[in-house]
């Protein structure tokens, strides 16, 4: 089995474009998921009546249906109801749907993990609920959530490969196209793996560095 | 920087692992590798296993699909059963593996199947990648458009979106001859048809037999007269270099041709799918004799 490097070189421009699409889908989805999660977590933490139930239902629904099925539903089934959404938009919608649910849980868990003694101490020195939230709960909850939050960011970025199924030209779609056209299975899968490592590993390292740095304030060195 | 060093090391290890994996041509997988100079005869390997492993389509009626009872059936699929009967004495000594257009060749290359019987058109690129036997069908690529579409001829598609299924002859032909046309690719034939039905593209380019069959059952569509490229043979395929199995299939096709076996399958599966004036000879290639 020979390894065709010349062929790999010829595909690089297309892969560069695909990496752009992957990052675009991944980063936008992380941002929108975080927004959804912040709103949801606030609803959960403040135990807003009715809305709280709705958020719980959403989280369970999103976490217990596979992304691929959500994607097929939005892309192939909704047009039958007269709602036609582009592949790119379908990708963002479903990834936000999924990511929002996971991140909601992360943020909620972060807030719940702040020791009760901290709240009681805060109240005993006369902090208002607003001050308690701003100066006691959020700083600690944020730090506590970081590891899980970052892990979920990476998870969402990796999940972008699923959206190749609705013809979004990201890295897996590009890989499969080349394999189908030129049968360079080994070469293209090697390139794909390498791209994933180059893309996700540095990001993962960066995030864990950031995590250490931010937690330094809490736990010292 | 410690992290940079670590990642460099990791990368080189990974690269080596990938390359090492590629050098291993013969894997101890289920179907023994039929590469160059096999130590034992490949047919003997199949007989020792007492099972022929065939890659087939499961969503392309009438060639390969799933019937009401959940059995894999169809024009191609049933040929696989007949092969098993003549090689191993029992038509049930066959294991079908579901393949998609784009996975047919990788499945052969990685020894997951002995044989592909999945409506694969013979093209020069594919000839480099696999060993084709003599053909069993003939086909041309055409395009399906909605009845009311403004598209009258192929070139009208230049500024439109054309749907293809990844790795089909249509995908390859369009990429090569019209690299600037916008293509939307899906993994499965059914997904592509669904995409056309929901207006995600203006046309669906695919083997004409599949289009004829589908449009007969789903009114509201028409097939463009103009063909994409020449009429081409469709043939079973085995792994590159597996001359022994290829020759056996060729001899078997010739033998089945004497019994007009393909015509029988045509009557069973294909005839009702096509318009009444279609001649069987314009679809099937009996005995493996190709006259282009």
UniProtKB/TrEMBL annotation, chain A:
Subcellular location: Cell inner membrane; Cell membrane
Domain annotation ABC transmembrane type-1: ranges: 19-207
Transmembrane residue ranges: 26-46, 136-157, 188-207
This protein's UniProt keywords: Amino-acid transport, Cell membrane, Membrane, Transmembrane, Transmembrane helix, Transport
Record-linked InterPro entries: AA_ABC_transptr_permease_3TM (IPR010065), ArtM/GltK/GlnP/TcyL/YhdX-like (IPR043429), MetI-like (IPR000515), MetI-like_sf (IPR035906)
Pfam families: BPD_transp_1
Primary location: membrane
Entry GO MF terms: transmembrane transporter activity
Topological category with respect to the lipid bilayer: Multi-pass membrane protein
GO cellular component: ATP-binding cassette (ABC) transporter complex
A single BP term in Gene Ontology: amino acid transport
Presence of the UniProt keyword Transport in the record: yes
UniProt keyword RNA-binding present: no
Family: Belongs to the binding-protein-dependent transport system permease family. HisMQ subfamily.
Identification of the protein by name: Amino acid ABC transporter permease
Organism: Pseudomonas donghuensis
From TrEMBL, chain B:
Pfam families, per database record: SBP_bac_3
PROSITE patterns per UniProt: PROKAR_LIPOPROTEIN
Keywords from the named record: Signal, Transport
One GO term describing the cellular component: extracellular region
All copies of domain Solute-binding protein family 3/N-terminal, residue ranges: 51-273
Secretion signal, residue range per the UniProt entry: 1-25
Classification via InterPro entries: Bact_solute-bind_prot3, Solute-binding_3/MltF_N
GO biological process: amino acid transport
Family membership noted in the UniProt record: Belongs to the bacterial solute-binding protein 3 family.
Protein name, per record: Transporter substrate-binding domain-containing protein
Protein source organism: Pseudomonas donghuensis
